[in-house]
Amino acid sequence: MQVGVFDGLAVPAVSNADKLLSNISQLIEDARQAAIPIIFVQHNGEKGHPLEHGTEGWKLHPNLDVTDIDLVVKKSTPDSFYDTDLQEQLNSYKIRRVVIAGIQTEFCIDTTCRRAFSMGYEVTLVKDAHSTWDTNHLSASQIIDHHNSLLSEWFVSLKGVNEISFISEIGQ
Question: Which residue, among 23, 1, 38, 70, has the nearest Cα to 164 in the 3D structure?
Fold first, then answer.
């Protein structure tokens, strides 16, 4: 959810960008109201990449409500766990259930869902809060639908934004 995939300067804006931002903003607001920790995963692209580390495109999108208490994990591959401190962050909060949303469906979302499942996490993929781009062979909508179907067979519980219910476990 970084500026570089929305601004259209280096690449076309991600499919359904406005709806994606709205849905993820709703998830953030709901989680915050339930005192659920929020972790943003920020991709560190190489020089010349739309998400090149330290550039304007690399920054988290300004429409997201990022606060000082939120955690930010920086990654350089599609796997949010690989060579990052994500697992340590989750362990420090005793988190066993994760809700995943963001970009890019067929890379970061798919890989992170599968990896989280393999590591024993209960994974919810928000079916209307991840996106990608059209390719030469498939539309973004087809890619999203395919991954929602494929991942829900083994790896995730698939829910829409309005089906997500965050319940605070703080103090329990």
Answer: 23
CATH, domain 3-159, list 2.40.30.100, 3.40.50.720, 3.40.50.850, 3.10.129.10: 3.40.50.850
Report, in angstroms and rounded to the nearest whole number, the Rg of the chain calculated over CA atoms. 15
136-144 long-range contacts (CB < 8 A, ≥24 apart) are 139/15, 140/14, 140/15, 140/16, 140/105, 141/15, 143/105, 143/106, 144/15, 144/105
Q: What is the pTM of this model?
A: 0.94
Among candidate residues 100, 67, 72, 97, the one with its CA nearest the CA of residue 85:
72
List the domain boundaries for the chain. Answer: 3-159
Task: Compute the average pLDDT of residues 98-116.
Answer: 98
Query: What pLDDT does 13 receive?
Result: 87
First to last CA, the chain: 32
